[in-house]
Prior knowledge:
Elements: H1 6-24, E1 61-62, E2 65-67, E3 90-96, E4 106-111, H2 118-133, E5 146-148, E6 156-161, E7 171-176, E8 181-186, H3 191-205
Amino acid sequence: MPILGPRTLLATTALATMLTLTACDPAAEAPPAASAPVSTPARSSTSPAGSGKHTLTEAATAGGLTKATGASTVSDVPVDPGEMRDGMNLVFADYNRAGQTSGRRILFVGVDSVPEDPNKRREHLWRGLIDYALQNGSTGTPTTAKPYQPGPFGGSLECLSLPESANATDVICGWSDTTTAAVALFPRTTPADAARLFAAMRADLEH
């Protein structure tokens, strides 16, 4: 082994000390990486209008219609709404068209916080309203309904004409979304006009 001089020995000792300190310092194990650009958080997508929980309220005006009052208005639920559980709301009311003072009114029946598939609850309401409109007739079925634009709350909205009725121009419409189901009887109208009016009513009745 060669004999090291004082300067060589000192340099060797200093180098060994530095290597030892470097091994003990995690930050010195590798050169600092280049800073990665901070990504901008993606903007959360807006939930579909038909998603989430909605509730129904009895509106004094709905879609430009005025809620009827007085002794001649509907005083009891004309259609079996199905099983009502805690937390559910049942809304039913007659509505007058603009300037209407007599004659048959638009009848609305709806429920919210539906625990089962709202489509099934709508079908239940729909069949009951068909029986009511046809005076407990056995004809008419929701399967013949046509879909229309549901409005800002999404879900589905369908309307069905009742040619079997004594009032051949009567139309029944129904909507359903994630938690609500509702139907309405529109006397003397067309399915397309009833659908537009029902969507407008929905904007005031559902929240």
